[in-house]
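Q: Structure for this?
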Amino acid sequence: MSENQTLLPDVASALESFTHLEQKIMHYQQLLGLVQWDLQSGGTPRKGQASRAEAIGALTADTFELFVSEEMGACLDVLTKPENNQQLDAESRARVRVAKKEYDKTKNIPSSMNREFSVLTAKAHHIWEEARSKNQFSLYEESLTKIVDFQRQFAEYYGYEGHPYNALLNNYEPGLNVEKLDLLFSDLRQKTIQLLDRIQASPHKPQKEIFEQKINIEQQKEFNKFILPKLNFDLDAGRLDESVHPFAIGLSTGDVRMTTRYLEEDVRSAIFSTMHECGHGLYEQGVHADYNGTFIQGGASMGIHESQSRFLENIVGRSLEFWTYFYEDLKAHFPQHFDQVSLEEFTRAINLSEPSLIRVEADELTYNLHIMIRYEIEKGLIGGQYEVKDLPQIWNEKMQDYLGITPSTDSEGVLQDVHWSFGGFGYFPSYCLGNLYAAQIAHTIKQQIPDFDQVIANGEFDKIRGWLLENIHQYGKLYTPGDLIVKVTGEELNAKYLVEYLEQKYTEVYKL
Amino acid sequence: MSENQTLLPDVASALESFTHLEQKIMHYQQLLGLVQWDLQSGGTPRKGQASRAEAIGALTADTFELFVSEEMGACLDVLTKPENNQQLDAESRARVRVAKKEYDKTKNIPSSMNREFSVLTAKAHHIWEEARSKNQFSLYEESLTKIVDFQRQFAEYYGYEGHPYNALLNNYEPGLNVEKLDLLFSDLRQKTIQLLDRIQASPHKPQKEIFEQKINIEQQKEFNKFILPKLNFDLDAGRLDESVHPFAIGLSTGDVRMTTRYLEEDVRSAIFSTMHECGHGLYEQGVHADYNGTFIQGGASMGIHESQSRFLENIVGRSLEFWTYFYEDLKAHFPQHFDQVSLEEFTRAINLSEPSLIRVEADELTYNLHIMIRYEIEKGLIGGQYEVKDLPQIWNEKMQDYLGITPSTDSEGVLQDVHWSFGGFGYFPSYCLGNLYAAQIAHTIKQQIPDFDQVIANGEFDKIRGWLLENIHQYGKLYTPGDLIVKVTGEELNAKYLVEYLEQKYTEVYKL
């Protein structure tokens, strides 16, 4: 980080107090992250969960109180004054920007409300797991109703223009709103459905049967352990575990924890979950070491974060070039399972597209439709058009409308996602934004690394990683997502590159 | 818990404030416990450890500040006044007693000192691991010297009568001092060395070769998983992992985490480590649910805690009756490995006694000598007779003096234990106290459950567990260790029962 050598005394003093608060908040958040990892990776014994929820509630409340403290308010007053703010170096300005957004958003929320919400969601996570495993939405209804009520109240506290859901969207993607998203999504929906129609009419189907075989989970773990370091994930600064719903969390730049999900009957699950989370993990590990423990540690936004996971999982990980490099290794790890399958057949099969029930197992094309369904439901719940008790029915109707299929059970439908259980309303659109950002960024990389395809086929992933590190990862939250995408690609986010990418890919896979 | 219904208003108000502080402190300690578990079970990636140490330091300092806060002082002033104190129910009185001891001990310690010490020890743990793995004491010398300096300063802050080491002993075993310990140890040392001489002269040696075979670690894990529930450890309220140095930690009564150590070349390591930690674990799980999250959660003292682990590991776990019940299961889990070994030979072999280098692998008899060596070194370091740089030499001389053998490397000598790296001076004697308490308690159990041996041979461990729960576990820290041992056994702690037990056992094993 550069130095703030020329600061006026009161600015220097405010920055010092601000830094002290920031360190404490980031320490707390690091510890809370560890507790969340423990809970979500299945490490917390069942009978310890209630007590853990109380402890999480206590530390979350402390963190919140520091964030909205008078001291923080006083620091931000000084540091956001234009004549003072312009004295700061870029990093300090960004740290203040991040804090100010959080402060403004939350300063009116009573700390008891945050505490209650933490306790509620820590418990709701396990209720959701139970409801899902018992296939009984009614078990979850009461918790989810409370969570939605909290979200509506939070939206009012945060403040918004237009639709109340904008307040929640803005949490994950600063500057995003319902109007922009409706436009991006309607464009993408139309092209996706056209492409899906052409795919379904194509006589050239990939051979999905090649994955209809059981593969030993220990062997799958070995393969995952084999690819992670090749993709430049640093296992001295992170780890890979298992959970029902894979996730990645950066506790610090030196402790990035990912989980994956092994299915004996579908080897794709672990491979692509691992690559997906590895994309997140590389981002967290790649943030400038000086930003560790500051407010600009971590990714620029959820959408940008998701672009990194989608880029690695889909644009790199489902390419012919990637498997040109890895296919022999895969065959060696799973002897006999793919002996009769050519590289081309394998690559076409991992790019199969067809309507399916489970978002996390959905293909690259239909995935975006899954997101649009969740987006509409969240918008309807927060806007008051929908009620929680009706969700199973609404879900199934929308699945029919967008994807032409209906889940036969709620576990395969409305109960499939963890997100609502932790109150992550406004989060789902990030996944689709991730695809949009990823395609736009990939377009730029291919211009700047003209032999991109060959680099991947050679397994020179450090070159790709180097580019991402230099252009995106190192910056953490230094730039807003809007500024970053323009800095990196020269234009604002739009659907053009994703549509082009999908059309090109599926034209090849399905010989359209 | 009973109710405090008749409290005067200012006492009720002090108790309410006290309870509020207590909850917060216990929440923090629960979270710090989780972080420690993560570190010590090897879960924290190497590059994340420095940042974690800072976060631990921050929350430890917060906990400390709450403990010595003006508010805590004011509450304790009210609640310890005799006329107020006697209004409280037994549980509240005990909670106040525990807090008052901690408050008096630490109120003069500057919070910066605690914070520095936390950071130092979090880092020292990994330095110790490195020094041990590289067999290089010099790597550890600087950290350990700083830790000893801190301990000496802490002793001054805590206050003591007589030897400064008394201040540290008192942390783990309230009421203990160098004079009492010297007496207990000199008695025990003399009888142990006499017994060891007779054992070494005996022609009837157990067949230790039966353990000189490699046993697959996955099979060992299965056996450990098999015995834990039989011993009444509740896996819905705890878990078993692995670490270099096995430990148990109770984050709450519903989340008790233990680790064990698997050695392919010695199956005894995991079996007896697991039983040992299970003894601790049962105690933590067995504390009255109402005490969870209060200052009387957890064991009465380190010595009493250790009595529970020693009781299960040695008095129960190395008995002929225990293996009468489990031996066929053991043989089934490790097919062929023990086919030629009779139950009696097996039981004699697990009770082999001979001088050895590593404390955690030492037998029940010589173990106490290992403790005496550490006790003398600690006393000398804190008293200023010894310097850290001389420890490798001092260690080796004492090993020769007590056990008649000398380590050839420091990894097998002075570097073998984790304890000093976390500043656990005064802790080691607890292990020997544990043996003393355990033998004295066992003497009482055998009077109250006259068919004790048959109960174990029948695998009716719930009967033994029930007795421990009723007489010891449920009480947590309600009683001081001195009061508890008198309540349970009718007399103060003395060496008689351990000496008797050891003489009886080894007379049988070695046909003396």
